[in-house]
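Hi R.,

As promised, here are both runs. First protein below:
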Amino acid sequence: MESVQSRVSAQEWTLRVELAAAYRVFAMLGWTHLIHTHITAAAPGENEFLINPFGNLWQEITASSLVKVNAAGEILDQGTTDLGINPAGFKIHSAVHTSGRAVSKWVMHIHVPEVVAVANLQRGLIRGLSTYSMDLGPISYHSYEHATDAESDVCERMVNDFGPTNNVLLLRNHGSITVGESVHGAFFLTYQLVEACRVQLLSLSACKTDADLSTVPDAIVEKTYQIVQAKYTGEDFGKLEWDAARRQMQAEFGDGYRA
């Protein structure tokens, strides 16, 4: 039987390996909801995308098992499993990928409880509360609607709420979406978001009133964000951190994701 690697381009195979690695890094970090939520990446073909086979645990995902679909969610390449995809999940991702946003190649969607908790707060995420939150840039918000609601154009509304330039969308009562042009950019944005939410919940739990919180002024928050975006580490945002997380994942799970 023809292998997946033999029937796709070298560019797509490299992308498959990176995406499989991302799924396993998320599994290592505990950012999973059993088989739910998704990481998707735009494939080299026009309006073609890679997504997880719906039913696999994230630590089971390999480069060959990923499913290739078009923007409508129709399967173009099944991969090595007989599993389909989660239509509701991909509907959200497809809307972001095809929205015409400047940044939309990688889309990461999580239901991490701390992130859901902060998304539920009317005030949302406090950007000046930690070094984690200052790395995120402006935050967008979207009120809860189920993606399969036939009576609601939820995806159009979600994309409008996201806006053209923000890279973090908090989904009220649901989770978050982070986007990037690279796996490392989207990954580290997600990492900083999760940790920012944890710090915020810890801080709020120790306070009686807002007066007990110490926050950084908006001007310094914005300046810090710009410094971090401008290759503060000598590499693109998140590149060194992604490489480190991937090495840690390989040490724990091995390199079976490459298969």
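And here is the second one, sequence first, then its structure tokens:
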Amino acid sequence: MRMFEQYRLGNLDAIGTRVVLDLWPRRPAWAAASISELDAAFFAGLVMESKPARLLEIGVASAWVSCVLLEALRQAGLDTSDVYGVDIADRFFYDADYATGQCVRDVLPDRLPRYHLATNVTTGEYASRGEIDALEFVFIDAHHMHPWATLDLLALLPLVEANAWIAMHDLNLSLKEDQDHQNRGPKYLFEGWDQDKMHSVQDPTMAGAIRIGGNPSSHLPLLLDILYTPWEIPVEPRACDPVCALISRAYGEAWAEKFRRA
């Protein structure tokens, strides 16, 4: 494990606290099943310090996290940065009376010109459209069972910039008794990552981030190894096939075949 040493544990959480203080009083009552204030402070602090121009969120749901990201960008003076969102559903999974992504429209309507949402699409399908690249920050908070977090990152690997941050939520969700020790997808990816990474001050932490190296393709062997960890849930071809196609185009058919076998 190689922890990122630029910030002491808790520094990013402290930096992002003002975003939480400003935003949380405006949180809609219906926007349940989202991140805590502690998690939000860590992610907001990371955005404010890394200053990305283009961010992508996988697993939007209500879009309360989208609001956190957009407000962090505003407070960092990054009014021209764009946030993209991808979700498999077009209605909020916790309450179908609300649309996926509705929090941005309700809470930060002035930021809508910088918010771009795609629904009814998997990460691989979205990445295959060729509508986005040069991602500097990715937030993964979709299906938590393995191999989903790894598949989401694989789909985006050809699209991320060198030294981009990949933030993840619910790293230790499997430690909760009601989870039956499942939902280890983000945990496997975070703990298996052998390059720079950080996590929040919370113990056990639910918020963390890994950093892509100078050559994103150098992570393919590690991601392949993580993908060979026994899966917690079957994944239909709709999700897997576009990922293998993306790998083939970006890194060659030999690598694509390795991932098909996994």
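A quick note on the second one: The chain has a mean pLDDT of 96. Let me know what you think.

Best,
J.
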